[in-house]
């Protein structure tokens, strides 16, 4: 038996008593976050990566790792080549 666990979010809506029950988490702004999606959560000066998961039929944030992934750079980088001949409107 092969078990495949993908990293893509899962749309998890259930039907109970003929009604569709949507299962998702919410972020700090109240926006919908699908099951399986990960985000950085900051609470009381602590930051960690968390994933939207189900626990006892309730969507919740589960801590995945300490610290957060970041794409910010500490210094401003210059291009490696002169891009003067490149048309930016292409």
How does this model look, in words?
With 90 residues, the protein is mostly beta strands. It has strands at 12-16, 19-26, 32-34, 38-43, 46-55, 58-66. The model is unreliable at 1-10 (pLDDT under 50).
Q: In terms of topology, how is this protein built?
A:
Layout: E1 12-16, E2 19-26, E3 32-34, E4 38-43, E5 46-55, E6 58-66
Antiparallel strand pairs: 1-2, 2-3, 4-5, 5-6
Q: Got a strand count? A: 6
Residues in helices, as a percent range: under 10%
SSE order, one letter for each helix or strand: EEEEEE
Mean pLDDT across all amino acids: 74
Shape assignment: elongated
Q: Short description, anyone?
A:
The protein has strands at 12-16, 19-26, 32-34, 38-43, 46-55, 58-66. It is an all-beta fold and 90 residues long.
Jot down its keywords.
three-stranded antiparallel beta sheet, single chain, elongated, 46% strand, mainly beta, 6 strands, 90 residues
